[in-house]
Design a protein that fits this description.
heterodimer, A: 659 residues, alpha/beta, FAD/NAD(P)-binding domain, five-stranded parallel sheet, 26% strand, globular, B: 282 residues, five-stranded mixed sheet, binds flavin-adenine dinucleotide, binds iron/sulfur cluster
Chain lengths: 659, 282
């Protein structure tokens, strides 16, 4: 017979003010198999824990219920406490009488009644608890970083500096991401390339870092500590082992297409190094526009290459490698504003540009060598309108969230224009100005002092009249319509996750929210973890943010990876699902619903009457299972149990509540 | 020209004999006569002579497909005489991985309805899956009244609904006939048969009967092929289809047009996980 101890916490006055804890203890003493029940001011404190341990000895308890805060808070604390006693750490149930009772009720009598019910259920459940033991799995001490923006680079450098091998998989021909496209960075206005390219070079030269550019993740198998990742390397058509990056080929290539790096302002050849500071600084051929590959003509690069590095027959290659941890750093893209906002010309006016295009325009190594000129006619604009929140904070047409960097980079852009073009005017249409960062408000103040004119309201229409772009909007502070005749318009367009994030998330078994941002395991307490063990996140793949936040998050993710890789093996949670294969029908619905791909159908020998047969049954991979319980809920036969939350235990709780 | 009832019967016998003659088929599942002229019964023809006992008329009502589950590890194939509903039942069990297609030889027969009220609502007179087909395919009708009964019932107050079902389940005798006939109820061991798990009380009282009815409705909810066998076999006349139709109606409302037992790859709506599944509540 079980001997249950019930410990009811006051949590100071957090619980005791609303719940009559003594009445709960008195009620608990009457529940079946309860050998001892008491209350204490702070159960989680040192003396609280000591009292529980003593009671276990004194009353010969073999399992306990702690009625306190959410198990998310202290279940682990109490499990650790039990490690030093004769009771298995899993012979413990938490009745959450704080968050689910005291904090959400005001009526003391009713709250007490509810708390008693919670305890009653926990007592019923703990009676069916079984000792569980953890097992260990070995850890492959290598990390994979997906995405080579500043987030991915920083995370990789930190992990590599700690002595672990890291691979960066970057889908573009160079690492660097968006940061290297920027001109200056707020609030300190240091040159973006000057601070990001040294990091790119470090990543390229680090003995522990392998760069895999023009690569994507094709398949992910395995689990925390033991991922097996297939990486797809797109054909580069240039043998990077031979190529020295002399760049002769790009000067001879006759093809010209819009340059991605320069955001369509300016062109690049078909064989190209994306930008001067690219890492690796070696070219690739774009097969969609190369004359040799599309029409079997030209072939000039092959002729001029002094090292015979050109290979038009190059093919997609696949390699499979093992990693212990994965960091997702796939970053952001800008929304396709032209589709969302036809009233801004829908892309038909060359002088309505995005913030990122402006970054290329003011950049000394950009297509205009840093001269701010209109893309249409090369003239210097005098009157510039900046429209903020294009696609952000717009539930009707765009995204409901705030893109966070735009307030600051718009102030930066205004400052740059006013600084570089004497006598210019900048009008910024805004909804709010948000400057929550160190030195940010001061930066915004300075921009206003520079003469930037902030108009509160959205722009409703932009159209062309002669040489001018007419911007019509409302000044909501004055309550009147305003019209600004501009030479150029810069749209601060919303960030959105990388286009293929759903695909990446699917392969990794991590989830994304309705806006497709990668979901962290807990928004406050586990901000760089995902729900899948061993998969971490950093940077703008998780949500819009600026560089300081991105880099800080990258360091945090790296620290988590290091903590994991520092062990030779790791404990796995025993609270995972298990299949009673004697009952299993082999229907495979659990396989379909498992978000972690932890279940597979296997063949086992069995009996059907007096015949020996081969049965198909479900089998859980204990390394992959995260204990979410989806399978248990799906199984109609009820032959899947989540250890620690077995069907029997849940039914006992329901019975207790309904009694 | 459409085949007469007699022509079809002869063709069925012919195809049944051919199937047995291959040596790969152990028996042909169809119907034969009983001592009542208006009652046919399921029949398993194992020899050429027995094939001549197979019949086809408007009283061939029982579903044929589920009998294939009687031997889950057959050494030879089952040949099944399959109408539209039977072919959907087969698709159901194939998708639920309870049958293997290579263990089946399906003799499809175009059916224009039997002496069975559900046939008036039939949307699939033509078999959807078969190895040979008897009869010319006919145009299908859309059943406009598929959810009419449920819609009318939804208008009742919760109390009225409860009262209605409570009375119905007072009649239920816990015989599990509905489950035994249902092609979607194909678990190796039904939850209701398990002892000491706490799922299903064995008493036949209002509460336990309702628990059974509700659980069964949810278990087949997104997989019901609407053959109506459950309701037909119920000895106490419970309107069981009204439950499954309610589930299907809700699924149609939430997920778009939905029908089960089709020969496609689509998984039942509640039996899958995709990244597009909204999880903002997590
Ligand atoms: C106009 C503009 C101006 C800005 N100015 C500033 C500023 O002044 N100061 C500041 O702090 N912040 C600024 N920001 C914000 C800054 O750009 C971001 O905070 C930062 O670049 C985010 O870095 P990241 O590594 O998360 O993402 P990214 O830079 O987007 O990097 C992601 C990388 O992952 C790669 N990738 C994506 N998907 C895959 C895949 N499936 N497989 C492999 N690789 C993949 C991408 O190619 C990319 O290289 C500005 C943003 C904009 C739009
Ligand atoms: S509990 Fe089941 S569904 Fe959840 S991860 Fe484990 S095996 Fe998959
Ligand atoms: S109609 Fe009844 S017997 Fe037919 S599949 Fe649906 S629940 Fe089963």
């Amino acid at each position: 017979m079980a001997r249950i101890g019930v410990f009811i916490c006051h949590c100071g006055t957090n619980i005791a003010a609303t719940v009559d804890v003594e009445a709960v203890a008195a009620a608990a003493r009457e529940f079946p198999n309860v050998a001892f029940a008491t209350t204490y001011k702070y159960m989680c404190s040192e003396p609280g824990q000591a009292m529980i341990k003593e009671s276990i000895e004194d009353y010969n308890l073999d399992r306990i219920v702690i009625a306190s805060c959410s198990p998310r808070m202290h279940e682990l604390t109490f499990r650790k406490m039990l490690k030093g006693t004769k009771i298995n750490p899993y012979m413990l149930e938490i009745a959450n009488i704080r968050e689910q009772c005291a904090w959400v009720h005001t009526d003391r009598a009713k709250a007490t009644e509810k708390a008693i019910d919670h305890v009653k259920m926990a007592v019923a459940k703990v009676g069916k608890d079984k000792p569980l033991t953890t097992s260990t799995i070995p850890i492959t001490k290598r990390a994979l970083v997906i995405g080579g923006g500043i987030a991915g680079i920083q995370a990789a450098l930190d992990i590599a500096d700690a002595g672990f091998d890291v691979t960066i998989v970057e889908k573009e021909p160079s690492i660097g991401g968006h940061m290297v496209m920027l001109d200056k960075t707020f609030p300190t206005m240091d040159c973006s390339a000057c601070i990001s390219t040294p990091k790119m070079v470090d990543a390229g030269a680090h003995p522990n870092i392998t760069l895999k550019t023009s690569c994507e993740v094709e398949k992910v198998e395995g689990y925390v500590g033991n991922f097996e990742v297939t990486i797809k390397e797109k054909a580069k058509y240039v043998n990077h082992d031979l190529c020295t990056g002399c760049g002769l080929c790009q000067t001879k290539c006759p093809t010209k297409v819009p340059s991605e790096f320069n955001q369509g302002i300016g062109t690049r050849p078909a064989i190209y190094i994306p930008f001067a500071q690219a890492v690796p600084s070696k070219p690739v051929i774009d097969p969609t526009c190369c004359l040799k590959l599309t029409k079997d003509k030209c072939g000039i690069c092959e002729k001029v290459c002094p090292l015979q590095a050109i290979n038009y027959k190059d093919e997609t290659k696949y390699t499979t490698e093992k990693y212990g941890a994965i960091v997702v750093a796939t970053g952001y893209e800008l929304v396709d504003w032209a589709k969302m906002y036809p009233e801004y010309g829908g892309g038909k006016y060359a002088d309505v540009i995005t913030g990122l295009q402006f970054e290329r325009l003011v950049n000394a190594s950009g297509p205009t060598e840093g001269h701010i000129v209109r893309p249409s006619d090369g003239k210097e604009p005098k009157d510039v309108v900046i429209v903020k929140c294009v696609g952000s904070r717009d539930q009707n047409k765009g995204k409901s969230y705030c893109s966070r960097a735009c307030c600051m980079y718009s102030a930066k852009h205004a400052h740059q224009i006013l600084d570089k073009i004497p006598g210019s005017n900048v009008y910024i249409f805004y909804m709010d100005v948000r400057t929550p960062g160190k030195g940010y408000e001061e930066f915004y103040d300075n921009t206003r002092a520079d003469g930037a004119q902030y108009i509160r309201g959205r722009v409703s229409k932009i159209f062309k009249e002669g040489d001018k772009l007419i911007c019509k909007g409302e000044d909501t502070l004055l309550g009147k319509q305003v019209t600004v005749e501009a030479d150029m318009v810069i749209l601060a367009t919303a960030m959105e996750p990388a286009a293929n994030i759903a695909d990446v998330a699917g392969k990794l078994g991590i989830s994304i929210d309705s806006d497709r941002w990668v979901t962290e395991a807990h928004p406050k307490l586990r901000p760089v973890e995902t729900q899948t063990g061993g998969v971490f996140l950093c940077g703008t793949c998780q949500g819009p943010k600026d560089i300081p936040d991105t880099v800080a998050q990258a360091g945090a993710a790296a620290a988590k990876v290091m903590a994991l890789l520092n062990h030779d093996e790791m404990e796995t949670s025993p609270m995972i699902s298990s299949v009673d294969q004697t009952k299993c029908s082999g229907c495979g619905y659990c396989v379909e619903v498992c978000p972690y791909k932890a279940i597979s159908l296997i063949q086992v020998p069995g009996r059907d009457g007096n015949r020996k047969v081969t049965k198909t049954v479900a089998d859980v991979n204990s390394g992959l299972c995260q204990g979410c319980g989806c399978c248990a809920a799906t199984c109609r036969t009820g032959c899947i149990d989540l250890k620690g939350y077995t069907n029997e235990q849940i039914l006992k709780e329901v019975d207790a509540l309904c009694q | 020209m459409a085949l007469s009832e007699k022509d079809i019967e002869l063709k069925i016998r012919e195809e049944a004999k051919k199937a047995l003659a291959t040596g790969e088929v152990s028996c042909v599942i169809g119907w034969t006569t009983t001592r009542f002229p208006d009652k046919m019964k399921p029949f398993f023809a194992e020899t050429e002579a027995e094939c001549d006992e197979l019949v086809w008329n408007k009283y061939c009502i029982n579903g044929t497909a589920k009998y294939a589950l009687d031997d889950r590890y057959p050494s030879k194939k089952f040949a099944i005489i399959a109408r539209g509903c039977d072919s959907r039942a087969i698709n159901r069990m194939l998708k639920d991985k309870q049958l293997l297609r290579e263990n089946l030889y399906i003799i499809g027969v175009v059916c224009d309805g039997k002496e069975n009220p559900i046939c008036e609502e039939c949307q699939h007179k033509n078999p959807l899956t078969y190895d040979v087909l008897i009869g010319e395919p006919v145009p299908e009708q859309i059943d406009e009244k598929r959810f009419a009964e449920v819609e009318a019932f939804e208008k009742l107050s919760p109390d009225e609904k409860y009262e209605y079902w409570a009375k119905q389940y007072d009649k239920c005798i816990h015989c599990y006939a509905c489950r035994n006939a249902c092609p979607a109820c194909n678990c190796v061991e039904c939850y209701a048969d398990q002892y000491r798990t706490g799922w299903q009380g064995k008493a036949s009282d209002r509460i336990q009967n309702q628990v059974y009815g509700l659980t069964r409705a949810f278990h087949v909810g997104d997989r019901c092929i609407e053959c109506g066998e459950c309701e037909r076999v119920c000895p106490m006349g419970l309107p069981i289809m009204r439950q499954t139709r309610k589930m299907l109606k809700d699924i149609n409302d939430l997920f778009g047009d939905y029908e089960c037992g089709m020969p496609d790859d689509a998984m039942p709506v509640l039996g899958g996980y995709t990244l597009a599944d909204p999880d903002e509540f997590m």
